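hi support,

uploading two proteins for the ticket. first:
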Amino acid sequence: MLAEEKNWKLIKDIKKGKFCFLIRVNNWAIELQKHEFELLYKLLLKLNSQFLEIKDELMDEELINLEIEQMPWYAELEGKKYEWNLRLIFESLEQTRSFEMYWPIPIAENLSFEIKKMWESMD
């Protein structure tokens, strides 16, 4: 399964083995294991839920910052009511690897939606 726009790409290829999900944004990419991708999906759901709880109370130009830590992920949403970016930090539970991702406006909202759609389409 593939979702792609000009500045980002999301690929699921279960046949690939251990690292079967790829997220590319601009000039970098990272591969995730299935359980890492699932935990990212759950983190993004929680972040989106918190954002939706306060979105209607925000003025259009009001700045917002939401932070969530749900090991092995940390997420920070920053922006306004209708446009925001995401910073994600991953540190594996086995402490074998760690990385940081930044998804700028408008990639953050589009990619979050596609991750949700991809995970929910799996059997």
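and the second one:
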Amino acid sequence: MIILLVSDLHGDIDRLSKLKEEAEAADLLVVAGDLTHFGGRSDALRVIEGCRNLGLPLFLIHGNCDTEEAARCIGEQEGSLHLVSRDFSGIRFVGLGGSLPGPLETPSTMDEEGLNQELSSISLPQDGMPLIFVSHQPPHGSCADRAMKMKHVGSTSVARWSEAVAPIAHLCGHIHESACVGRIGRTVLVNPGAFKDGRYAVVRIVGGVAEAELRRV
């Protein structure tokens, strides 16, 4: 399976057309939040339409800069992953939208206790199917959560959940400058960076094993 991973579009869909050739070889598009920049339903739908124009099945979650109205719209989509598990080509996907509060006020945030409660509400069948976790908020203490490439600002709740569940891949976003491919134990961790800056990632799953590559358009 080949996954195109984008995050943090912040309403900018102009570069999506540059992924069309890459999309022809891919199986799935995953959007890890911040489709809009404080936009409403119409803004979310515009970005979703731009993503669907790539012609791929779409899985998505909301980010901290998606308003309640936009987050609700994203949650209504067939491929919404927020607190929902969906199976695709023998891989199970589950997601968590929103983020911790940051230095600037954004509409879709909650504290660590809230994130922990949401993660605790996720029910996953114990059938051995490989899992991919998609969260807007990166895990704390990882390569994906270094604000200004210095301070770790990720979530300890997200980190604990990912470590405990051990998905084959954890796809995240939020911290634009912390694009990376790394590991948490056996899990491949990917923050593609902000697609509004032309950054994205290609994730390949072969035999239940994930690998990823950062790219730019």
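thanks. also noticed: The first helix runs from residue 20 to 23.
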